[in-house]
Amino acid sequence: MTRSALRGDHHVHSTFSDDAVSTLAENVAAAAEAGLSTLRLVDHVRQSTTWVPEYLAAVSKLSVPEGLTVLTGVEAKILDASGALDIPALPPGIDRILIADHQFPGVDGPLGPTAVRERIAAGWGADDVLDQLVDSLIASMRTHPGNQLAHCFSILPKIGLSENDLGDERIQAWARAAAETHTLVEVNEKWACPGIRSLAALRAAGAEIVASTDSHVATDVGRYSRVVTLLDAGSES
After folding, report:
1. Which whole-number Å values give the CA distances from 2 to 10, 187, 220, in the listed order?
2. What is the pTM of this model?
């Protein structure tokens, strides 16, 4: 399974994202050089984003080498505890929405890590924080089925918690929801998540796991190290 997953990179940013430096064409060339069979081109969107038709047109004009399949995606953060996403109306042609925990999904909107840490210090219980995060992830998967979780649980160390704090019940509920909603779950090279315990739960639930670099520069496309370790260890657990 590890070898097969590593032939894909399901989260690669281009200059359509304001924090990436490589073009769509440079990413395609890098994927071919790395020997990938699947490349998902992904860029950040918000509700105010207007360039998605331009992005799709640019992807359609790419010269794709034989043996490489190019897929599309947009990455949007979870806005609140209901699982709503910060995403515009999308035209046909986007293969997957990448559901991202860039901020913490608060009841009334996204919370930055500092705000969450302050609330925890003021008495917001860790169990309540974790319940709200997992519930919002599940709600988002159920509202937007058939998409992909991006760097899931990367928010936890930013707020002073970890995947180990989730416990089996939460992780298993999250994994079952991913399987039931046909949500791809990426193992992310940049953030090294989800972890071994979560990957084992995904496998047990029958969810589909893919690999991603979350690259913002073409030289990182398809280059895995942390993902290899996670997948190898997860397959043995």
Report:
1. 14, 11, 18
2. 0.96
One-character DSSP codes across 40-96: EEEEE--TT---HHHHHHHHHT----TT-EEEEEEEEEB-STT--B------TT--E
pLDDT digits (tens, 9 = 90+) for 193-222: 999 999 999 999 999 999 999 999 999 999
Nearest residue to 72 (alpha-carbon basis) of 22, 136, 16, 155: 16
What is the token pair recorded at 68?
């490489």
Structure tokens at 204: 């047990």
CATH architecture of 2-236: Alpha-Beta Barrel (3.20)
